[in-house]
Write a structure and sequence with these properties.
By secondary structure, the chain is mostly helical. The protein has helices at residues 2-10, 17-30, 38-53, 61-84, 100-122, 127-172. The longest helix is centred in the last third of the chain and has 46 residues, at 127-172.
């Protein structure tokens, strides 16, 4: 049991995402998944735990946004510590380069969406799977909208900065 639990936990390693996703796709394509088989059952438990681990974008927007911001703040704190100790800043941990919307869009596009689409196939597009995919789609659209807004505000700010400096110089002389 200890080995099986360890295997379930290790399956959540994001670096093994493609390995598990490829295997799940192959099983679903070949229609050779047999839940009577101990190995197949264990594999599907690993997939279920992976889904549970990354399901935040599949929740209602308000809750998903709140937890996404918390996770990104944790990433940014790590990046700040790495910078403080003059280490290379880890991917997604540089708040000067990595915006929360762009992090979330990438996470949804490359990690969450592919896995949950296959999970929906496995469950026969159950009502729960469909609901989760709807939330995922809605949340991704929300983050894309916020990213566009951030880019517009950044553009506006950079265009106004020279004028602001001119005004500041004018009033201080």
């Amino acid at each position: 049991i200890e080995q099986q639990l360890g295997s379930l936990i290790l399956a959540t390693d994001i670096n093994r995402q493609n390995e598990f996703l490829t295997r799940l796709k192959a099983h679903l394509h070949n229609k050779d998944l047999r839940l009577e088989d101990v190995r197949d059952r264990h594999f599907m438990l690993q997939i279920a735990l992976k889904c549970a681990d990354i399901c935040n974008p599949c929740r209602i927007w308000e809750m998903s946004k709140q937890w996404s911001e918390r996770v990104c703040e944790e990433f940014y704190r790590q990046g700040d510590l790495e910078q403080k100790f003059e280490l290379e800043i880890s991917p997604l941990c540089n708040q000067q380069k990595d915006s929360i919307p762009s992090i979330q869009i990438g996470f949804m596009t490359y990690i969450v969406e592919p896995l949950f689409r296959e999970w929906a196939r496995f469950t026969g597009n159950s009502a729960l799977s469909e609901s989760m995919l709807r939330h995922l789609s809605h949340n991704k659209a929300q983050w894309k909208s916020l990213l566009r807004l951030c880019k517009q505000l950044f553009s506006l700010f950079t265009n106004l900065l020279p004028q602001a400096k001119f005004c500041l110089a004018f009033f201080t002389n």
